[in-house]
Specification:
The chain is an all-alpha fold and about 130 residues long. The protein is about 85% helix and about 0% strand.
Length: about 130
């Protein structure tokens, strides 16, 4: 595996995060978990390919640092992906909670307005009844 392939997958991971639209009035983004997990799997595959090639090549000392660096890079990318996913989950929950509160307040205001309108209608009907009798 070449470092170019690894960097290409890492760039795709970065684009999958940075290229997402932000939710209004928040720093939240919506990400497709399947896409991110696919990229993490591709990173794992590349890491395994690196390990397999070093085993075939004899794993000389000159190759060992690049394998360790690659593995550390993959592990760091996986940890970052997990952190981003957890942050996205937390922010999504906050957004859902805020949306529910907003909807409840709005529906409460609507109920009050409807009650006032109903009272006006009932008073109007009562006055009509008085005039008719």
């Amino acid at each position: 595996m070449s470092p170019e392939k690894l960097m290409a997958v890492l760039e795709q991971l970065e684009q999958a995060i940075d290229g997402r639209p932000r939710l209004p009035l928040t720093d939240l983004i919506l990400v497709n978990a399947a896409d991110l997990l696919d990229l993490v799997d591709r990173l794992r595959t590349l890491a395994l390919e690196m390990g397999g090639r070093e085993g075939v090549a004899g794993g000389g000392e000159e190759e060992r640092p690049s394998w360790q660096e690659g593995r550390a890079l993959v592990e760091a990318a996986q940890a970052e992906a997990r952190r981003i996913m957890e942050e996205a989950r937390q922010r999504a929950e906050e957004l859902r909670s805020g949306a529910a509160s907003y909807a409840d307040r709005t529906l409460g205001q609507l109920a009050e307005s409807l009650e006032k309108a109903l009272q006006v209608v009932q008073r109007g009907r009562a006055e009509l009844k008085k005039e008719l009798t």
